[in-house]
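re: ur question from the group chat, yeah i did fold both. here u go
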Amino acid sequence: MRIKSMPIALAIVALVAIIAMPALAQEKPAKKMDIQTFLATNQLHGPSLTRDYFEGFESGALPLTWAQTITNIERTWDVSDGTSTGSLEGDYCAFVGYDLTVYQDETISFDQYVDVAGGEYVLSFFMAGAKDTDWDFNVAETVEINGTQVWDFDSNVTAHMTYEKYFIDLSAYDGQTITITFRYAGVDGDLHVLDAVMVDDGTGYEYIPPPPPEVPDNDTCEMAFDNGFEIMPGAFSFSADNTLANNDYNMAYPSCTGYSFSGLDLVWYVCLDQGDILDVTMTCGFDNAIFILSDCADPESSCVVGADATTSGVEEILGFVAPADGMYYVVAGGYSSSGVGTFTLSGTNYGDGCIVATESTSFDSLKSMYR
């Protein structure tokens, strides 16, 4: 190391002068610092969430900051909330449709500063497109960085028309502003979609599927009993909707309704004494069926009466005389899975009800009493 020389006397004088200075006089005026030095010394990269670049196309259009090249104006990149694959994040996704005869070379791109020290070194995105078809190789779906192809869809896709998450390492571009381009080129290809584009530390957008829709509270016999869907003595009328129900009590032809049953069904329960009469009418706009079970675990063998005599939009009417004391379950739904919507279940329970022991107020204990 080279060290500048200095006369010893001058060094001693300078040292004495510094010692003799008042404390305040030792402070030097603040020196201006350029922004690059400031960022380097303070490492103001922040948590990864503050560094994420994200685009989910939720504006309903391609971002104004993105560039686009168009070869086929009728079939180029756009944004939609109605593609056959749907969106992955939010309501919208970017997509490009296919042209059977006219060549397409369509691109969308954006610029991004890559700061590996700050954690921004991975591009991630979700894509869906054709796989294992006669036309999936008719077009090339690729990603380019600064005009050079670095990734292609056909070499990475594993599922047909299903969103999958892909990653591209950007660490080679540390400290650079790069242009990231999505290209769709060819003719007679297929629909191609893009969503949740992100540049971050490699985590990427975490897709959490929405919870399944909640089924009605009387979707099954057990649920009907536990949630109090009881047909009490006297006249009754229930408004219902089987749109989110399941087919829990499927029956093959010929069943107690006179036909098969594969509809989405709802359940009510009723406690009857031997000889009690129950009249039930189902009114709706679809082809429906109603039947009564004595054992929900075995619908085909325990169906005591059923009705499926009419066609779509005509009410079904069922009359029942209880052959024995017990708990019975009225099941109502579409004749098939296409019979869905709102309906009304009405009628009259001519019985007086029956008493259930307080220690037998769960569905499991009751069904052991009335098999």
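okk and heres the other one u asked abt
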Amino acid sequence: PRVAVDAAGNATAVWFRSDGTHSRVQAAGYDAVGPTLSNVEVPSTGTAGSPVSVSASATDVWSAVGSIVWSFGDGTTATGAQATHTYAAGSYTVTVSATDAFGTTSTATRAITVSPAGALVQLPPVLPKLSATAKLTWKRLSSGATRLTSLRVNRAETGSTVTLTCTGKGCRKAASRRIVLTTKNVKRKSITLTRYISGMTLRPGSALSIGVSRPGYQSRTFRYTMVKRRSPKKTTTCLTPGAANAVSC
């Protein structure tokens, strides 16, 4: 016989054999090693409850690869070049095995750490903002005070509530009130509030606030703070129902 051996230990033997009449060529092979595993893809991390995907390929010198088997380290298995698995939180060793037609097996291992799933956070609903605007007019006096002349709320929706609040020196009682907007007092989505503030003279530091609210909407507040010999400073804030603090809007 003539024998050839490769670097891995696989061998082939060839010889002649006579049956008394004819000479025949015969051969035999020896499969010393299992399949070669390559492209073994196992993620190093995962999240509990979310499936992870694994894959691998295998080739063999002498025969076709019979099967690829996955052992996920938690008592479960799967077969095939590709597979998915869902873990509980913890650390696991994934083992992939490939077996050739002669029953020789090769294995490879990979580690994976699975983190607990994050708690679901219930976000508060995003409420629409009111589109109402306020327009206040005034006259600056030589004394440094400010005399109010007119006030109007535009884009006012029926069902909204307008709250007037006046603080500081010069406020009249009529300038602090609560008005529910109806079809009777809203004309073309506008309401005039001049009669409550007209002629009122406010000293520097005093403030007039106009709040507009409506169920299911973020409320809006316009605040005019009087400044000596200058126009009032206007700020606009919005407040989501249930929130602790208003924000600029």
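fwiw on the second one: The longest strand covers residues 90-100. The chain is about 0% helix and 55% strand. idk if thats what u expected
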